[in-house]
Write a structure and sequence with these properties.
Layout lengths: L2 H14 L12 H7 L5 H25 L6 H17 L7 H18 L2 H9 L5 H27 L13 H11 L24 H30 L5 H29 L3 H18 L3 H28 L6 H6 L1
């Protein structure tokens, strides 16, 4: 691999590393609730959930404007700067309202960042390497999620405020992006004779179709994650720590799928989707009839692998179905 491509990949991975930073505050919610005893716990939960709400519209906004109204590099700098400032900002705050405002801005910054790694892979990486890099991009994103969540939990053990210090890691990504990320070439096409948008700027119906499939697919998988703790504890399969280990295997499975996605995609192509679906169905059978923590842990890991294969394949299809000028918006959808 050429050095220039290597540097570009490192820059893309630096952006992907921040994509799952939202989870850093989850281990600290109980400690934050103790620090604000007069605040309803439902309001404390917004610290973890409000960013997920603001991610949605700002992901679409970022996908629409990047590469068109604003350069990739410029939006990367702005987004990472907001990520760090709004992520670390609550360290200094004594008002739950102020903290929630920062968390909303944090979600907006994360949303602006999310479409960019996938779009940059299709705009800057050689076609023969895209499947490998897309898989590894998922690995890096999951590693980032683990680092932020574990870092937040470790720092919270010292003081709840320290949880927000983990977002200073974004400064490393900012430096990497400043020095290594080039601006993708701008792809433009003249408008049609009637002044309509050029064909290569339009989003084909297939993108919306695949996006609906991902939405349904996610809705079917995520109840497993939210219900695992109850399943383990109510059936006396183990402790909350054991349930946490089982849930972690979902992320580990996603990482394994990403690590081997490139060669698997070259062999199976579109059949990666049914293969992933079959693997998830088999894993759900294991979860349904498994009667101990070991089987649940294996099943959760297999769900992560199947989910990773299918989702990454769909992302590849989406990126391949649009022109470079529309890649970011397609990714955000």
């Amino acid at each position: 691999m050429k050095k220039s491509q290597t540097m570009i990949i490192i820059a893309i991975f630096a952006l992907a590393f921040l994509g799952m930073g939202i989870g850093a505050t989850s281990p600290a919610l109980a400690s934050i609730a103790q620090a604000f005893p007069d605040v309803p716990f439902t309001s404390i939960l917004l610290i973890a959930t409000l960013p997920a709400l603001s991610i949605i519209p700002f992901s679409l906004i970022g996908g629409k404007i990047v590469g068109n109204a604003i350069k990739y590099r410029t939006l990367s700098f702005i987004s990472i700067a907001l990520f760090v400032i709004s992520g670390f900002g609550p360290y200094f705050m004594n008002s739950i309202t102020a903290i929630l405002v920062m968390r909303f801005i944090f979600g907006a910054a994360t949303g602006l960042l999310m479409p960019m790694p996938g779009a940059l892979i299709f705009n800057l990486i050689e076609e023969k390497s895209r499947a490998n890099i897309m898989g590894l991009n998922n690995v890096i994103m999951n590693i980032g999620g683990i680092v932020f969540q574990m870092g937040g939990g470790i720092l919270c053990a010292i003081n709840w405020r320290n949880t927000f210090m983990v977002y200073l890691l974004g400064l490393v990504s900012l430096v990497v992006v400043i020095f290594l990320l080039p601006e993708p070439p701008k792809f433009e096409a003249p408008a049609g004779a009637d002044g309509a948008a050029p064909e290569n700027a339009k989003i084909p119906a297939s993108v919306y179709g695949w996006s609906v499939i991902i939405a349904v697919w996610t809705l079917l998988v995520y109840p497993m994650l939210t219900g695992m703790s109850s399943l383990v504890l109510e059936n006396n399969y183990g402790t909350a720590a054991g349930a946490g280990v089982a849930l972690t295997m979902f992320t580990v499975g996603g990482m394994l799928a990403g690590a081997v996605f490139g060669p698997i995609y070259k062999m199976l192509s579109r059949f990666c989707i049914p293969a992933g679906l079959i693997l998830v169905v088999a894993a759900f059978a294991l979860l349904a009839w498994g009667n101990n923590l070991t089987l649940l842990t294996i099943g959760t890991g297999l769900v992560g692998i199947g989910f990773g294969f299918a989702n990454t394949t769909i992302i590849m299809f989406i990126g391949s179905s649009v022109a470079p000028a529309a890649t970011a918006f397609a990714m955000s959808i």
